[in-house]
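Private note to self, pasted from the team thread so I don't lose it. Backbone tokens:
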């Protein structure tokens, strides 16, 4: 079986804009279907689009020999939503047997964790969801807080409950309910160990496990019954892992144990952007040539300009020898230098720049803010640390009303509940739950329902807390109905139960909210980022009302901006301290062994690679003065405020 030029042209018409075509690097990747590989792709290279084109072409050539299928594992549902929106009903072939198209979590839950749980406990789990598990543990909060040892040893956790709820569990063997707690107390006869163990046992017995427990059970299942890999390998001819840089060690171990040498496995990602897995742990994915995998790369960015490419090629844990950007935009990256007395002027200066800098868009010279409005690519300011700090910079240093809890990670706006349900098949229960709650929040917003405690729109945490405090049974029923729909797919009952829940809370729902929750019409769902009104900077610049959303770097991963401001924040040290050498071209050939520096480089790389036109970096004067002689005016435009 081969992929030919006609296949490529057909995919270009579906996935690219009129007149666009895949470059040579992407064509080589799309056509490579006979070997396992690592694809190291630079920011904005169009790797996800290339992968989707490849999947579409392969699906058109099905059925394969022996009726094998394609397994696509993702970390988010962006790729799933894109392909459903692009192909409509034609996408059904990709999502039906023998194929699997979903998150790693949903694959693990369905094929490994649930069977393993059944072997251990004798029945199916009710919920695989860390938040559901945590809600069950709330019952034991007072009991845990009375334990002096737990209080003294909670470390950096905000509470004893958070500490206990995050303890790792190792299951002993299939067919038994026994497990071991992985924390400092090793004496299983101690009162503290028994207390925590009994709580976990009771919650496990009720059918609740966390996401991390699902992976632990899956690993045990594969180790105990290794021949399972032959079953998966006979079903799937190809396995693709998107956003491979976000793969944790246990996820990678499980994936590799699921499939034997007869399966073609292709990992697609950017090792420089691995900021999402296991709370900043270094990515387990290593894109290197070896006996099993060939290494391919995409080194041409279709998003960032060449001036930005020249900067970010060095601000990376694996610097690029060359990084090709778009050569039709020549705006230099800007550095805003500030001190403690002028930090409140940083956002204003950024707003002035986006209103004054100009470029050509659709054949007309426009300022960057107008280009943003025309293109739909926002102007954003982002930082590493959102939480307020007593002795250092955070996002709140620049915009005091910033609320980290209100930011949304890759949140998609859905035009109604039914559309969300239709576009949310083969995703994890946790993602489906979060999407359902987002729809509930949208329905409340349509009726102008606010949180009585602060007269603001509810966010997710506030809504769940409000329901729990009003009626715990009501919250349990709502969460249960979400899981029931996830498995049974009866939309009318699902919609009815949600409306009944909101009516029980005495929310005055208007007809447009009822319609949003009841209407069974599939509508387009563009990938629109929802921004809380308190996380937006809104100055007036020369008579123009400007809107600049503020977010954490984790909240904007995967987005495309017209202009991005990276705000200096403090993570042990000011963030710029970790990458000023790289900014000024002083690159060490030896890879850093500093965990914090590598974290900072990956965070900065993600932020710096969002904008198409203008990258702006704020640097505190105390850091800038150490390097100012090294900043080249040929590369940067410097503004001191």
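Design output:
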């Amino acid at each position: 079986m081969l992929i030919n030029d006609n296949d490529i042209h057909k995919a270009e018409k579906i996935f690219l804009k009129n007149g666009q075509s895949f470059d040579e690097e992407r064509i080589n990747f799309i056509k490579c279907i006979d070997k396992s590989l690592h694809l190291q792709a630079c920011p904005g290279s169009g790797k996800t689009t290339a992968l989707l084109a490849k999947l579409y072409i392969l699906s058109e050539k099905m059925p394969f020999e022996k009726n094998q299928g394609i397994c696509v594992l993702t970390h988010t549902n962006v790729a799933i939503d894109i392909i459903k929106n692009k192909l409509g009903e034609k996408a059904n072939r990709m999502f039906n047997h023998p194929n699997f198209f979903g998150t790693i979590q949903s694959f693990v839950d369905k094929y490994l964790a649930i069977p393993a749980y059944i072997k251990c406990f004798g029945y199916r789990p009710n919920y695989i969801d860390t938040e559901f598990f945590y809600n069950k543990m709330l019952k034991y909060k007072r009991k845990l807080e009375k334990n002096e040892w737990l209080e003294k040893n909670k470390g950096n956790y905000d509470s004893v409950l958070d500490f206990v709820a995050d303890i790792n569990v190792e299951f002993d063997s299939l067919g038994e309910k026994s497990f071991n707690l992985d924390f400092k107390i090793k004496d299983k006869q101690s009162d503290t160990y028994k207390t925590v163990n009994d709580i976990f046992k009771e919650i496990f017995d009720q059918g609740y496990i966390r996401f991390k427990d699902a992976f632990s059970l899956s690993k045990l299942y594969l180790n105990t019954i290794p021949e399972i890999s032959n079953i998966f390998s006979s079903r799937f001819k190809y396995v693709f892992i998107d956003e491979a840089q976000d793969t944790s060690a246990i996820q990678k171990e499980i994936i590799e144990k699921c499939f034997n040498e007869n399966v073609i496995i292709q990992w697609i990602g950017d090792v420089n952007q691995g900021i999402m897995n296991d709370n900043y742990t270094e990515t387990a994915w290593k894109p290197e040539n070896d006996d099993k995998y060939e290494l391919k790369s995409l080194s041409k960015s279709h998003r960032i300009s060449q001036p930005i490419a020249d900067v970010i090629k060095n601000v990376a844990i694996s610097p690029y020898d060359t990084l090709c950007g778009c050569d039709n935009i020549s705006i230099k990256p800007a550095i805003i230098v500030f001190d403690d007395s002028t930090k409140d002027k940083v956002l204003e200066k950024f707003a002035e720049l986006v209103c004054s800098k100009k470029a050509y868009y659709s054949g007309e010279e426009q300022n960057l803010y107008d280009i943003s409005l025309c293109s739909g690519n926002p102007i954003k300011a982002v930082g590493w640390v959102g939480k307020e700090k007593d002795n250092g910079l955070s996002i709140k240093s620049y915009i005091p009303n910033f609320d980290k809890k209100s930011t949304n990670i890759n949140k998609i706006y859905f035009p109604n509940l039914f559309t969300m349900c239709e576009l949310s098949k083969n995703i994890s229960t946790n993602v489906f739950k979060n999407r359902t709650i987002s729809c509930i929040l949208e329905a409340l917003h349509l009726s102008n329902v606010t949180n009585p405690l602060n007269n603001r729109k509810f966010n997710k945490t506030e809504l769940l807390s409000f329901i729990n405090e009003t009626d715990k049974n009501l919250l349990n029923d709502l969460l249960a109905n979400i899981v029931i729909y996830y498995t049974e797919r009866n939309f009318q009952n699902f919609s009815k139960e949600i409306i009944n829940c909101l009516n029980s809370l005495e929310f005055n729902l208007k007809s447009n909210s009822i319609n949003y929750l009841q209407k069974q019409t599939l509508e387009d769902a563009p990938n629109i980022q929802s921004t809380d009104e308190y996380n937006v900077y809104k100055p007036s610049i020369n008579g123009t009302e400007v809107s600049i959303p503020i977010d954490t770097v984790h909240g904007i991963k995967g987005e495309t901006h017209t202009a991005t401001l990276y705000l200096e924040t403090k993570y042990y040290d000011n963030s710029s301290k970790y990458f000023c050498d790289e900014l000024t071209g002083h690159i060490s050939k030896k890879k850093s062994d500093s965990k914090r520096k590598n974290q900072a480089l990956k965070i900065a790389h993600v932020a710096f690679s969002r904008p198409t036109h203008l990258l702006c970096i704020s640097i505190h004067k105390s850091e800038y003065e150490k390097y100012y002689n090294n900043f080249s005016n040929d590369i940067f435009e410097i503004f001191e405020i």
